[in-house]
Known about the structure:
Elements: H1 13-28, H2 33-54, E1 59-64, E2 66-68, E3 78-90, E4 93-104, E5 110-112, E6 115-121, H3 124-131
Parallel strand pairs: 1-3
Antiparallel strand pairs: 1-2, 3-4, 4-5, 4-6
Amino acid sequence: MASAYYEFYRGSSIGMALTDSLDELITSGAITPQLAMKVLQQFDKSLADTMVKQVKTKTTLKARPLLVDMNDFSQPPSFLQGNLRTYRLCDDVWTFIVKNPSFKMESNEMVSAPRIKIIACKNGDAIEAGKK
């Protein structure tokens, strides 16, 4: 059985570029829409797998009025502080909007932004395990 993967990476700059390229290839007749869908499904799987296997940075989210721990404490944590403006849970996907966040990275570098959106979800393996 094929694993289910979230499609939100398609909204990233690389996902949008891929989608635009696939649209051009379909329009020119170089590929079929079915092949384009297979490419997008592989993109979803590859990006999700890469995030799980390659991204090693851990962080703790501290936002007023909520504390959400996103760290397994196996490495020194980075910290994010800001004002939690919105949070929601829908279909096992958490979405957090944080206003004026400041990140303290593992290297002690400080990074700020006016607003960030954090999307947290189960990985493909967890989705498959939940179906059994």
